Amino acid sequence: MKTVIELLHEGARKYGNSPYLGEKTSEHYETTSFIAADRLSLAFGAALAIRGFVAGECISILSEGKTSWVIGEFGILKAGCISVPLSTKLSLEELVFRLDHSESRAILVSENHFQKVASILSSVTKKPLVICISEKTKNMETLVAKTSLTLEKDFFYYADLLIEGQKALDTALNENKPLVDGKNIRQAMQDRESAIQPDDTVTISYTSGTTGNPKGIMLTHQNYLHNAENSAQIVEVKTGWKSLIMLPLDHSFAHTVGIYIFLRNGVTMYFVDARGGPLASLRNLPKNLSEVNPDFLLTVPALSGNFMKKMIHGVAEKGALVNGIFERGVQAGIARAGNGFNKPSLVTRLISFFPWALAKVLVFPKLSKVFGTDIKFCVGGGALLEIKQQEFFNAIGVPVYQGYGLTENAPIICANSAKRHKFGTSGVIIPNLDVRIMKEDGTESSPGEKGQIVTRGGSVMKGYFKNAEATKETLRDGWLWSGDLGYIDEDGFLVVTGREKALLIAADGEKYSPETIEEAIINTSKYINQVMAYNNQCKFTSALVTVNAAAIKQAITMGAIPMGKTEEEKIKAVLSAIKDDMLAFTTHPDYRSLPAQWRPASFALISSPFDESNGLINSTLKLVRHKVCEFYKNKIDEVYAAEVADIYTKGNRQAVQELALY
User: Fold this and answer.
1) Beta-sheet strand order (sheet of 296-299)
2) Which has the minimum average pLDDT: 442-446, 560-564, 626-630?
3) What are the pLDDT digits (tens) for 21-71?
4) Going by DSSP bridges, is the β-strand pair 475-476/463-464 parallel, antiparallel, or unpaired?
5) 4-196+238-270: CATH, from 3.90.226.10, 3.40.50.980, 1.10.10.10, 3.40.190.10
6) What whole-number distance in Å separates Cα of residue 308 and Cα of residue 330?
7) 298 confidence band (pLDDT: 50, 70, 90)
8) Using CA atoms, how far apart are residues 442 and 598, in angstroms rounded to an integer?
9) Domain residue spans of the chain
10) What is the secondary structure of 255-272 as a DSSP string?
């Protein structure tokens, strides 16, 4: 098997009319079989070919998870084109950049995101064809009428293209009319598929780079097939199982697992009902879980953490008796499991048996029903899952197994599973992937010794699109240098300890370049000397800052920072002034478009500069991010201790006094 298209053909052959994709309609979930997905994607690909799309051209997709998303992408590939999955959370400027950089000739978009696309069409260098992959609705017709788009000219409905493509394919059976590439459409589509090679690009997935400009990760047919085949050896999912996809399909984890591993193993992928937008998705999630009754789920820490908090709160409301059984049961379950790999002593298991067994009978089943009655486990990706979540969900009987990967690795590198897991680790490395831990001096680390994670194998990306310099920096002699730090423990589990490149990672797994924010702050600030933006799957972004004490003293003297009479008032005045100064970029024309999610909501004030003496900056005066995080771990912990943004922490108050500003 050399292409993911062949994987689709094989899925259609093996699983036939069994459901592959499921989408909520007004009353119930409608499913599309493996055979139908293969047939419909050919029709869509044929329609693209008829309309002049040629091999190697890019077509973007901006939509929540839908049946037409998956079929649309396979149609793009069958036409010989390249898919560019886009995050629905992109700002307008970010969307324009990706469309221009990829030179996308078309964009598939859902009704929920049509207005965003329509608003930027005049800003794109080459205006793409717009294809709506949602149903025809009166609302959609109204939205289109408000734009300059013309139906059947530069705007099309996916459903109409399916009909057009299928009609052409059917006609080609009875006549030899040349439509594409000088051949009838069926022969042309067969020839296009035959011409596809394992090293041809399937997707260009954009992620943020350390320069602030996103990089387009080129993943090939070989990359996806290698990752799907070998990842499936670690986390086993069975034919006939069902899953509700809660993650966006542009997310590399959901893309590989949901589209390719499910296709390989005969698993049905259902989508959360997103009609009405993101808020509707959140409202519909509990009901959809009940309707689909999944066997397993893909999740990110933000989702599973939200479930955990709601469960704990819900049980607490049942009263002291039930809550006591629950809390003792959870603690007993954690004790009985040990770290998941090394089991505790027989004495520990005996002592913990009764409180665990009581909760297992009276409380835990009601909690697990949140996920349905058939749930076996969840797999967490996108960001590191804190150990307390791993222990909690294992205790109540719905384990969440942590995995780790990079989009550049298509993406899975390792994972925990039911048959082999260890809490606090990211799991065992998938077969046929070489992983090394490299020290800063270029030598390989010993077992248990921390270094940078590097990988080599069939999953490793082709390179960064139109960015040879970044490709050369990341791919060295066939090895992918991840920028992540970790070590392999004595039992063969990979432990990820931090990010050397330190991309900001939100609670939902979205990533952003810290340099973008830091540049904005430094270029607009009056008082801040140094800044390091921080977000490691947290609810908000923060920053570690050092300040120009002389500039603040002068501002106080000149009355630019109004000071109160008491020490408390003076400290608060200084901290408020620093925050306002830190966020001055939000009104600057060059920086005000930076996404609100990544603007620091709080900060930790550091009273002495980052310098070479403590190793926090290198010889070129660049921050050594992982060392700053380690050195100021207590400061960072204090910022997030209350789980709300608060600049008046004890540490910040103390730092103001140490600076002697007044």
Assistant:
1) 296-299, 377-380, 400-405, 412-415, 428-429
2) 626-630
3) 999 988 899 999 999 999 999 999 999 999 999 999 999 999 999 999 999
4) unpaired
5) 3.40.50.980
6) 12
7) very high
8) 33
9) 4-196+238-270, 295-502, 513-659
10) IIIIIIIHHHHT-EEEE-
Least confident interval from 155-159, 254-258, 612-616: 612-616
Mean pLDDT of 180-197: 94
First to last CA, the chain: 72
Whole-number Å distance between alpha carbons of 504 and 537: 8
How confident is the model over 530-551, as pLDDT tens digits? 999 999 889 899 999 999 999 9
Name the residue among 283, 354, 363 with its Cα closest to residue 321.
363
* Distance of alpha carbon 383 from alpha carbon 205, whole angstroms: 17
Relative to beta strand 494-499, strand 504-506 is unpaired
Q: What are the distances in angstroms from CA 244 to CA 64, 291, 497?
A: 13, 10, 30
> Is residue 122 within 8 Å of 285, Cβ to Cβ?
no
Q: How many CB atoms lie within 10 A of CB 397?
A: 16
Distances (CA, A) of 496 to 262, 448, 484, 615, 662: 27, 11, 7, 22, 44
Q: Which CATH code, of 3.40.50.12780, 3.30.70.270, 3.30.2010.10, 3.40.50.300, is assigned to 295-502?
A: 3.40.50.12780
SS3 call for 514 = helix
3-class DSSP string for 298-317: EECHHHHHHHHHHHHHHHHC
Backbone angles phi, psi at 383, to 5 degrees: -160, 165
